[in-house]
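Notes from the 1:1 (GR / supervisor)

We went over the backlog. Supervisor wanted to see one worked example end to end before approving the batch request, so GR pasted a single chain during the call. The sequence is below; no edits were made to it. Supervisor asked that the structure be written out right there so they could see what the output format looks like.
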Amino acid sequence: MAKILVTMPDEFLHKIDGIASFEQRTRSELIREALRTYMKRTGIKDTQKASDNAAKLEQLLG
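Structure output shown during the call:
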């Protein structure tokens, strides 16, 4: 599984970590879900492609 480096303001990261802690899951799980939701919301027409991309992204984000 690959790892990526993402840069964000400290305050934003603290909010993400707070939500992840409250929901008792990892930061990576929260970010993967957010990206899956974004992909669905943006209306990717090819749902199989969206699913494949989500699976790849999940592998990348660990």
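Supervisor's comment: Helices lie at 10-22, 27-41, 47-61.
Batch request approved.
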